[in-house]
UniProtKB/TrEMBL annotation:
PROSITE patterns: HTH_TETR_2. Residues 18-78 form the HTH tetR-type domain. InterPro entries: Homeodomain-like_sf, HTH-type_TetR-like_transc_reg, HTH_TetR, MftR_C. Keywords: DNA-binding, Transcription, Transcription regulation. Residues 41-60 bind DNA. This is TetR/AcrR family transcriptional regulator.
């Protein structure tokens, strides 16, 4: 089965729900960056999209969850890019190329947005939601990896690979936030994936050098 045929076709109802969730998440993030998280209410987010607060609550349990939904949305786009890769492509190559495709589609963030996001993460509730979003990402990617690997593949291996991808994403994202750079963090994410696929040669070489310098045990 090819990746294209493995991807489920969403019905109209599901596509509308997906679009509504994305619109609410985008509005929540934009308003939080513009005003500050404490100055944004659920009602404000709902009004931006033209829905009721009750509709908002059908998709998100809090404004913090809505703000952090971009993390899951980012990985869902990488998942779809992975599903579209040629069936003959090796799994690691397909994962990396899917990430490269997504990196090329996402524009670089504004420096001011980076600063504001870093400030917002001092909010304990938002930070907790961000960690929860990163955990969700692993499940999202594991499903796509398992689909591509086929029914004979070990599902634990799919989860392990997804965990590696998720960790690379989390590390590159938080490093970017700490740096204050206005460059896109996705190239760093892609480079970490390439290092992982190659067995982390730089790290293992450094470890080997350290071991070689240690005096032999007497």
């Amino acid at each position: 089965m090819s990746p294209e045929s493995a991807a489920p076709e969403l019905g109209l109802r599901e596509r509308k729900k997906q679009a509504a969730r994305q619109a609410l998440g985008t509005a929540a993030l934009r308003l939080a960056l513009e005003r500050g998280l404490d100055q944004v209410r659920v009602e404000d987010i709902a009004n931006e999209v033209g829905v009721s607060p009750r509709t908002f609550n059908n998709y998100f349990s809090s404004k913090e969850e809505a703000v952090c939904s971009f993390i899951v949305a980012q990985q869902e786009r990488i998942r779809e890019a992975l599903r579209a890769r040629p069936a003959s492509e090796p799994l690691w190559d397909a994962v990396i190329n899917a990430a490269v495709i997504q990196a090329s589609r996402d524009g670089a963030p504004k420096r001011e947005d980076v600063r504001r996001m870093r400030d917002m993460l001092r909010n304990a509730g938002l930070f907790a939601e961000m960690l929860r979003a990163h955990a969700t990402v692993e499940r999202v990617l594991a499903e796509a990896v398992a689909e591509r690997a086929g029914s004979e593949a070990n599902p634990l291996h799919a989860r392990m690979l997804a965990g590696i991808v998720q960790s690379a994403f989390r590390i590159s994202f938080h490093t970017w936030l700490s740096s204050g750079s206005d460059a896109n963090f996705l190239p760093t994410f892609v480079n970490l994936l390439r290092e992982a696929a190659a067995g982390m040669p730089a790290l293992t070489a450094a470890a080997a050098g350290t071991t070689a310098q240690r005096p032999a045990a007497s």
